Structures are given as structure tokens and as C-alpha cells.
Amino acid sequence: MHFHPDRGFQHKAASEITPRDVYERRRELLKLIAVGGGSMALAAWAARDAQAQTARPNKLAALPATRSTIAGGVTMDKLTPYNDVISYNNFYEFGTGKGDPVQNAGKLKTRPWTVAVEGAVKKPKVYDLDELLKLAPMEERIYRLRCVEGWSMVIPWVGYSLSELIKRVEPTGNAKFVEFTTLADDKQMPYLGSHVLDWPYVEGLRLDEAMNPLTLMAFGLYGEVLPNQNGAPLRIAVPWKYGFKSGKSIVKIRFTEKQPNTSWNLAAAQEYGFYSNVNPKVDHPRWSQATERRIGEDGVFAKKRPTLMFNGYEPQVGQLYAGMNLVKNY
Ligand SMILES: Nc1nc2c(c(=O)[nH]1)N[C@H]1C(S)=C(S)[C@@H](COP(=O)(O)O)O[C@H]1N2
Ligand SMILES: [Mo]
């Protein structure tokens, strides 16, 4: 059990959220999970937690049964306060300021929602969100998130390994890469006209990266349904890569033979490579990647925490890149 007795799972910024807000969001998650009748572990946990809310309105109960114990899924780092996680975001479809997504994503309609899984697979299928929610047991995974801009967070996600979905669609021998397309709806996303990027936002992984158990399909964070600004109703979380590799509000997952063209790579190839593994020794052309600023923790002097190779997940993913030149394949 890796539940920390002091930190627990309480909202660090509880003072800034009313008990009622928290309780409502808990109920929302519970309802969401209850629809399919699947994911009983999470449903039971959410139910118990919703109950706990009435007794201890600001606190979340511990999650012993669903806490992931896979190596790398647990970090000793302190969780980033909930309020920072949900109000300091990159989601350019809703604006390029860190505070824009929380302001503008509120009305994003996350239901009904489907994800088309297609391409080089034996069983292509358009999945409904309800089906995805019960596809595999939900786990809580505490991951570091390192943005290419030089800041980081520690976020307790709720979800399951993307490999669970990949196994079910049975990739063919031609499947070498996986392409993720995120929602692009100009009626709901006010900044699609901004041309910062070519929309929709597209990201990609090599198939073996996508199959690695660390690669998560996240549906929640801090035990709650994903806030829209964090990529509701589902996003990818690839903790050993810079944050932009983790697409939000995913609508399509496509298996391909050729390496996908990804949005940031198309926008500035010298700055944002296809791999974009966190690497303190490979600097961004315009700044060092040796250190990072932990949001909610460090003061204005910023970047003093050393950045770790593969964001600290080298034991889990280092072998994926054996023999590869990581300077060339940045
Ligand atoms: N669709 C979409 N996904 C996206 C982005 C984006 O602008 N649009 N930004 C990325 C970047 S740069 C980061 S650092 C993470 C931020 O995730 P968070 O806001 O949940 O911390 O989302 C990534 N996924
Ligand atoms: Mo980022």
C-alpha cells in the first residue's frame, strides 16, 4: 500500500473549493461510473468517498483498493494542489494563457462522446464513452507531468492503461504507430481561429510506447471526473514525455504504419521532436531543460528542481530506446 498517511488524498486547496463543489463533482463521477455498471472497484470507492464527504466535507478518503502499485505509478513527490492542477493549464483550443482554459472550457459538451478506434487493427470500433468507462478497472496513478516549457506538476490521475484498449482492437502487423486526434469544434472552442497550431491537435506514439503500462487513458484526477480544462472526458497521460505528447479530449485513435504528423512537430520541428522524451541533457533550442519549476511549490526563483531522465521513469521505459541516439531523436 502506498497511501501516504500524512498527505492522504485530501484537496490541498480545499479552502478554495466549497464542500458543496467537491461533493457535487464526486456525485458526478459516481453517476458516470454507475451508468455501465462496470468498474466496480472505482464505483465502490467513489460511493464510499461520496459518503465520506458528508462526514468530512473537505477530505477525500484513501483509495487502498484502487491505488496502483506498478513501478513508476507511485511517486514520493508531493501532489500538486488541486487548485493549481485545474487552473494552470495548456489547452490552446481554449486560449494560450495558462488561466484561459479554466475560464473558457466550462461549456465543453463531454456527453455524448465517442472515440473512433481505427486504422491497422482487426477490430476497428467506435467506442461510446460509457463503454470506455467500464472497459477495464480504474486505477489511481500518481504521475509527474513535465511541460516542455520548464514547469512540472504531480497529478493523481484516474484511469487505466491504454494497452487495455489496444489489446481489444487487435493491431495488425502493419501497426507501428498510434495517432491521437483531439476534438476540434469551433462552436465550442473559441481559439480554433487563432492558427497557433493546425487543428485538430494531433499527437502520436510508437506502438510499443503506447503499449507500455505507464501510458494511461485518464478519465479523472484527484478522484473526480476530469475537469474540462484538463481534457475531459478522456485524455492520454504519457508521464516520461513532455506534456504536449498527452492529447486532451481525444476523439480518434488511429493505428498506422508510418510515423504520424503531429501538431507541434509540424509547427516547429526543430523544437518539438516526435519523441520528446523528457531529457535534462537535451535542451530546447531556446532554453535549458536541466531543471524545472514545480507548480505550487517553488517560489519566483523558479527552475531549481533537477529534471530527471525520462522524467524519473527510466527503469520502466529506458529499454524502449536502447541503442537509440536521443539527441538526434529528440
Ligand atoms: N488538445 C490539446 N491537448 C493538449 C494541449 C493542447 O493545447 N491541446 N496541451 C498539451 C500540453 S503543452 C500540456 S503541458 C498538457 C497539460 O495538461 P494539463 O493542463 O492537464 O496539466 O496538455 C497537453 N495536451
Ligand atoms: Mo506542455
From TrEMBL:
Reactions catalysed: L-methionyl-[protein] + a quinone + H2O = L-methionyl-(R)-S-oxide-[protein] + a quinol; L-methionyl-[protein] + a quinone + H2O = L-methionyl-(S)-S-oxide-[protein] + a quinol
Keywords assigned: Metal-binding, Molybdenum, Oxidoreductase, Signal
The keyword Oxidoreductase is assigned to this record: yes
Binding site for Mo-molybdopterin: N89, Y92, E93, C147, T182, N230, R235, S246, G247, K248
GO molecular function: oxidoreductase activity
Posttranslational modification: Predicted to be exported by the Tat system. The position of the signal peptide cleavage has not been experimentally proven.
Ranges of residues in domain Oxidoreductase molybdopterin-binding: 109-264
UniProt xrefs under Gene3D superfamilies: Oxidoreductase, molybdopterin-binding domain
SUPFAM superfamilies: Oxidoreductase molybdopterin-binding domain
Keyword Hydrolase in record: no
InterPro entries reported in the protein's UniProt record: MsrP, OxRdtase_Mopterin-bd_dom, OxRdtase_Mopterin-bd_sf, TAT_signal
Cofactor note: Binds 1 Mo-molybdopterin (Mo-MPT) cofactor per subunit.
Enzyme class: oxidoreductase
Cofactor: Mo-molybdopterin
E.C. number: 1.8.5.-
Family: Belongs to the MsrP family.
Role summary: Part of the MsrPQ system that repairs oxidized periplasmic proteins containing methionine sulfoxide residues (Met-O), using respiratory chain electrons. Thus protects these proteins from oxidative-stress damage caused by reactive species of oxygen and chlorine generated by the host defense mechanisms. MsrPQ is essential for the maintenance of envelope integrity under bleach stress, rescuing a wide series of structurally unrelated periplasmic proteins from methionine oxidation.
Assembly, per entry: Heterodimer of a catalytic subunit (MsrP) and a heme-binding subunit (MsrQ).
Entry-linked NCBIfam families: PRK05363.1
UniProt name for this protein: Protein-methionine-sulfoxide reductase catalytic subunit MsrP
Source lineage: Bacteria, Pseudomonadati, Pseudomonadota, Betaproteobacteria, Burkholderiales
Gene: msrP
